[in-house]
Amino acid sequence: MVLFRRGMHFGSYGTADDGPAVFDRLAEAVRSAEAAGFDAVSVPDHVHQNQVGGGPDSPMFDAYTLLGALAVRTATVRLFALVSPVTLRHPGLLAKAVTALDVLSRGRAVLGIGAGWDVAESEAYGISFPSAGERFDRLEEALAICDALLTEGRATFSGKFYTMRDARNSPRPVHATIPVLVAGGGERRTLDLVARYGDACNVFAADPAELRHKFEVLDRHCGRVGRDPLEITRTVFAAAPADLDAFAAGARSWAAAGADGAVIIGPSDPGRIPAIGEILGEVFP
Fold first, then answer.
1. CATH classification at residue 68
2. Which of 170, 113, 172, 171 has its CA nearest to residue 144?
3. What average pLDDT does this structure show over 52-69?
4. What is the pLDDT of residues 186-217, one digit of tens each?
5. Residue 278 belongs to what domain range?
6. For residues 183 and 83, is the Cβ–Cβ distance under 8 A?
7. Cα 77 to Cα 145: distance, rounded to the nearest angstrom
8. Is 181 inside a domain boundary?
9. Longest Cα pair distance anywhere in the chain, in angstroms?
């Protein structure tokens, strides 16, 4: 079963910090996306806005506080962070946060998680940012802990980085567990973790041949661990289009390469959301 097909990522809330109006604008754009047929909405999990999104003086909400607010402003879209970096949140607290979101949204939460990349915000906030190898080792432990808390309701775990002793997760997720999206297209570590723990992956849009190759690598990891690759939703991460015809052609190439759907970075002009939704609805119905 495909987790979602038409996602919109609201990676920037603009550059003006005008208090509650920031949220009002975002909530209206999210409602527009839902009305346009998008079936998933994501937000960043950062403490700083990066330079691409407007720089650190631009507004940046706490992801799970924001997603909880959006849960009561929406009715059908799945909601998730794209993604929670393993450097930022303890996995037990992350599992609690996403479970709270699931209950508030009546079962629409997805756990989006990754190894993290934003060293600048970590330096600004005094958050440890270890080597890539350690971040992936931490991610593996975090996925095991979240899996236990989300599916079994409790976790006892002793690893190199995290220790849990009969930790409980109540209230429980609405639908027994919460699907997991592991972001990134790294062939050795990331796609291996997708095969072992993920219900969805999200890879950057690339040449269709490269995209097909990534999915073939995922298939091989699934075969190695005994996982049915059809259980994993494959999505592409792409910027909002300037040229709608070129975007439609690109989306068709993603589908031909094996993608089940796409997550599009929301346009600066929310008025373009319906047109983007119409194209995605045709390519990924």
1. 3.20.20.30
2. 113
3. 94
4. 999 999 999 999 999 999 977 899 999 999 99
5. 6-283
6. yes
7. 26
8. yes
9. 54
Residue 74 CB: number of other CB atoms within 10 A?
19
Domain assignment present for residue 220? The answer is yes
Neighbours of 231 (CB within 10 A): 13
- Cα angle 139, 145, 146 (rounded to 5 degrees) comes to 85
Radius of gyration of the chain (CA): 18
Q: Please write the tens of the pLDDT for every residue from 10-44.
A: 999 999 999 999 999 999 999 999 999 999 999 99
Angle 27-31-36 (CA atoms, 0-180°, nearest 5)? 145
Q: Virtual CA dihedral for 216, 230, 151, 69, nearest 10 degrees?
A: 90
96: in domain: yes
Please state the three-class secondary structure of 130-158 as a single string.
Answer: CCHHHHHHHHHHHHHHHHHHHHCCEEEEE
What is the pTM assigned to this prediction?
A: 0.96
Tokens of 86: 């393993």
Mean pLDDT of 169-177: 97
Tokens of 18: 């005008």
Mean pLDDT taken over the chain: 96
Q: CB neighbours of 45 closer than 8 A, spacing ≥ 6?
A: 63, 64, 81, 82, 83, 84, 85, 88, 89, 112
The two tokens of residue 73 are 């402003």
Look up residue 98 and give its amino acid.
Answer: V
Beta bridge partners of 264: 8, 238
**Does 230 have pLDDT greater than 80?**
yes
Give the residue among 194, 208, 204, 203 at the shortest CA–CA distance from 254: 208
Q: With contact defined as beta carbons under 8 Å apart, do 240 and 270 qualify?
A: no
Residue 1 inside a domain? The answer is: no
Based on the structure, what is the number of domains in the chain? 1
- What are the backbone dihedrals phi and psi of residue 233, each rounded to the nearest 5 degrees, phi first? -80, 130
